[in-house]
Amino acid sequence: MSTAGSRGDGMRRANLALVLRTVHREGPRSRAALTEATGLNRSTIADLVGELQRAGLVIERASEALGRVGRPSPIVVPDPRVIAVAVNPEVDALDIGAVALDGTIMARTRLEQTSLLTPERTAQLVEATLAEWRRGPLIDSRIVGVGVAVPGPVRASDGLVREAPHLQWRDAPLSGLMTDATALPAHVGNDATLGAVAEHLFGAARGAHDIVYLNGGASGIGGAVIAGGIPLGGAGGYAGEFGQNRPGIVDASDRRASGGVLEDEVSRALLLSAVGLDGGDDAALAAALASTADPEAHAEVDRQRRILATALANAANVLNPAVIVLGGFLAVLAARDLDGLDTAVRAQTVPACADGLRLAVAELGEDRLLVGAAEAVFEAQLFAAR
């Protein structure tokens, strides 16, 4: 969908992308519903759907609607055989998923790591996993690219990982390494930015246009901003590093790191330590916090929530979002008492900025970063009408 041509060709590619994006993001639609949603006429929609079918991007299935008079209209759905491979390297594991154009996660694996991944090792593990999947769950699939959600700043122009400090990566050409390993187009982005896009399109912030998203992972805290429905990248694509802000800590006894940044004080590692765990995913952390009666563990949760509330209030005061979404271990912290955290945030927020503000935990849970990474692939490879 990105071949050169005349102005008319460009308009047609844009319309093809519009129809495909609509059924991907809004769900299956009849041709009549696509006509209404896109503003295109019925004959144009019929022509575009036919071309998308021939390209192997959509299929039509019989309508399940019963009791209607006349012949039921077929439903246009994304072809689930179209796949994006999604990757999230972290300090303790490598998550790899195969996400279909219809949103189904066709395969998923978590490769626990006992030493830090290198960019090269990451690409090798993805290559090996993909080779295995091609013989199994993806045997009949069409894989259109690889998306990688990295815990650190990524240069927007070429996907260079400028720094992933907890992985000890610096100026890593991950996009090229991934393409060389898999022979597929690769799209690399900051994990929080991709998580924000996923929650904006499919999760807790769906329908909102102004969003702040904070993601808590093993590598710390990342963040992203969507303003007017568009991700805010900044001059180089590095906007949203909330975890590197200096937190406002009123009570000196709450501070754990002299001169530390937010991710030093609000920390997954500190929470795991408080419940006596050496490691584990967010589900394990949540279960341990729910079952512990240790007052020191509860005190650590309360301390982190106080600091987090101030950080969120600062974001609300500066950016005036409609929704603040928390993912990863921050969602675990928030879910302990979402109403209480909301009250603490509002107490420190300018009243005008608090009007209409909603605090939410990520609806996509552990899938959010993989869904976001896949979306980067679909947007670049299928929806960009160039």
Biggest sheet features:
5 strands, mixed
**CATH topology grouping of the largest domain:** Nucleotidyltransferase, domain 5
Number of strands: 15
CATH architecture of the largest domain: 2-Layer Sandwich
Low-confidence segments: none
Helix content: 40-55%
Task: Report the average pLDDT across residues.
Answer: 93
Q: Helix tally?
A: 14
| Spatial arrangement of strands, main beta sheet | 6-5-4-7-10
Determine Rg (CA atoms, Å): 22 Å
Shape: globular
CATH class of the largest domain: Alpha Beta
Percent range for β-strand residues:
15-25%
- Head-to-tail CA distance between termini: 7 Å
Keywords: Kinase, Transferase
Pfam family, one: ROK
Organism: Microbacterium proteolyticum
GO molecular function, one term: kinase activity
Can you lay out the helices and strands and say which pair or pack?
Layout: H1 7-26, E1 29-30, H2 31-38, H3 42-54, E2 58-61, E3 75-78, E4 82-89, E5 93-100, E6 105-112, H4 119-134, E7 142-150, E8 161-164, E9 169-172, H5 174-182, E10 186-190, H6 191-202, E11 211-217, E12 220-227, E13 230-231, H7 262-265, H8 268-274, H9 282-291, H10 295-319, E14 323-328, H11 329-335, H12 338-346, H13 351-354, E15 358-361, H14 368-383
Parallel strand pairs: 4-7, 7-10, 11-14, 14-15
Antiparallel strand pairs: 1-3, 2-3, 4-5, 5-6, 8-9, 11-12, 12-13
Helix pairs in contact: 1-3, 2-3, 4-5, 6-14, 10-12
